[in-house]
Amino acid sequence: MLSNRPSLQKKLNSILVKPAGPDCNMGCAYCFYLEKAELFSESRTHRMSENILEEMIKQVMSQGEQQVSFGWQGGEPTLMSIPFFEKVIEFQKSYGSGHSVGNGLQTNGILIEKRWAKFLSTYSFLVGLSLDGPEHIHDRYRLLRNGKGSWSQVVDRAKLLLDSDVEVNALTVLNDYSVKFPEEIYAFLKSIGLNYMQFIPCVEKDPKDPSQTAFFSVSPEKYGEFLCKLFDLWKADFVENVPTTSIRYFDSVFYNYVELPAPDCTLGKSCGVYVVVEYNGNVYSCDFFVEPGWKLGNVMEDKLIFMLNSEHQKKFGQKKAALPRDCKECRWLRYCWGGCTKDRQNNPQEKSMNYLCTSYKMFFSHSDAQMSKMAEEWKGQQNLAGKKQMGREPSLTASNKIGRNDPCPCGSGQKYKKCCGKDS
Ligand code: SF4
Ligand code: SF4
After folding, report:
1. Is 156 a catalytic residue?
2. Is the pLDDT reported for residue 123 higher than 80?
3. Within 6 Å (CB) of ligand 2, which residues are found?
4. CA 320 – ligand 1 centroid, Å
5. Percent of the chain having pLDDT more than 90?
6. Over the stretch 336-348, which tens digit does the pLDDT of each residue have?
7. How far apart are CA 10 and CA 198, in angstroms?
8. Ligand in nearest proximity to the CA of 337
């Protein structure tokens, strides 16, 4: 229980929820979350009860901001099946009068079928679909429980979701193999209409020898090369200075260039601005720190807003802000802020330095001139329009100019998200 009522500086506007805990219907070789089953060994299957779901949503609606978002992830959240998510909507409606509510679902896609697609479209869920690229890349590690590849199923699900007008982002894990193929991955995701991309570098310790990274982790040099090449591909697709694809890391770095809070928590000065709720109501500091030391409480006993503003969560956020000397003296500090705490802890060589520091230095050196130019242009436009105000979204991303469901400007008659995004 939280003893003292802390000051409530941090606003509750988003939470991550793991309604099926670490349970998953796949067996990806690089997954870090399956190990978490050991933390929840009280049962073999883990499912959030209706009581916990109701209490959690009630709290978010009464303690949260005007706009709140729920990120449903796992493990694999679709294991909860559609009736659970119908309850989600029912509770959000009954407790959420006056609130604007967003839902995101992060899924491997395997269980998605027509009824799911209809449900997700009806309630405007933003889906993050795990897809690592073309078949030889995706099936390297993203395997079904029977050891077979999952690529063809996932691509079918991507098409079904897009055809059902569901907003879909690609969540693409970069590993020792896939990091060699930036052109192929980028072209493939675009070719199936996934123009919104998030790349997640895989950095895990080798469980047998924690002084090494696991063999499937990206190497810092290769990840740096990947980012530089991807940046060139992304820039080459600009039309009239506006991106036609969205890459979350680049979009977030741009926020730092124009001195606005970056949406990606790894690019902030400190972190701890959201919490994670596990299937049993336990609340933790971050998705990567679901472990006893970073347990903040339980929704059935404590209030989310107090847990978010607790001393313990503050301490967690400050871990990121406690930078090593190299970072403090680094010319890229104000764009990078030392990266994610997890990648400092998972650095087998030097605990306080980010394992991906070399990658970041390569990327910032490569992109700085163009990012600076884009930032200057954006600031100039803001001044010209007399509209500069903190908190306003930079109009960098494709979505700000053309809606994903708008007709493509190339004149094909297809929706923008399924076409090339080029002006005829
Ligand atoms: S530890 Fe990393 S992922 Fe977690 S909140 Fe901090 S920056 Fe974000
Ligand atoms: S580039 Fe490296 S040294 Fe510079 S701030 Fe980022 S992690 Fe620190």
Report:
1. no
2. yes
3. 326-327, 330, 332-333, 336, 338-339, 354, 357, 360-361
4. 8
5. 75
6. 999 999 999 877 7
7. 26
8. 2
